Amino acid sequence: MINAKVKVSKEVAAEIEYAKSEYRSIACATQYLLNEADLTDEQVEQALSGYYSGYEVEKSQEERLAEIYKAAVRESKGHFGWNEIAQGQAKENLAEGIKLTLETLGLKIEGVNV
Fold first, then answer.
1. Helix ranges restricted to H, 1-114
2. How many degrees, rounded to 5, is the angle at CA 71 between CA 67 and CA 74?
3. Alpha carbon 10 to chain centroid distance?
4. Distance (Å, rounded) from C-alpha 84 to C-alpha 82?
5. Same domain for 27 and 48?
6. Is 82 among the domain residues?
7. How far apart, in whole angstroms, are the C-alpha atoms of residue 15 and residue 21?
8. Which of 110, 74, 107 is nearest to 92 (CA)?
9. 75 and 47, same structural domain?
């Protein structure tokens, strides 16, 4: 059976990397993650799974929203047929909606409204 990589936050990933770099034995790294790392119980479980099975860092909400925005802007350009024009306009409207939402909430995201 192949173990799938675990998705973890940046904070959990930092603790995993610290454990890997500071402790030569798996037992010591595990003890660090269990007893010393500044993690919640759920994060400890994720860290241990990530340490043993591998992990991917989850994108933050801001990073995911920025990706959606950039894709909408990119896809709204360069359409020529009527159907493509309508689709392009919809993507452009989506991008503008994201910007309006961020402005309304007083949030700034690099690459979107900053």
1. 10-22, 26-35, 41-53, 61-75, 82-105
2. 140
3. 8
4. 5
5. yes
6. yes
7. 10
8. 74
9. no
Closest CA relative to residue 18, chosen from 3, 4, 46, 38:
38
45 & 67 share domain: no
Contacts of 68 (CB under 8 A, 6+ apart): 94, 98
Give me 73's structure tokens. Answer: 């802007």
- Contact predicate 47/39, CB 8 Å: yes
pLDDT score for 16: 97
Each residue's pLDDT tens digit, 82-113: 566 667 677 788 888 888 888 877 888 888 88
Q: Is residue 111 part of a domain?
A: no
CA of 69: how far to CAs of 4, 34, 84, 103, in Å? 29, 39, 18, 14
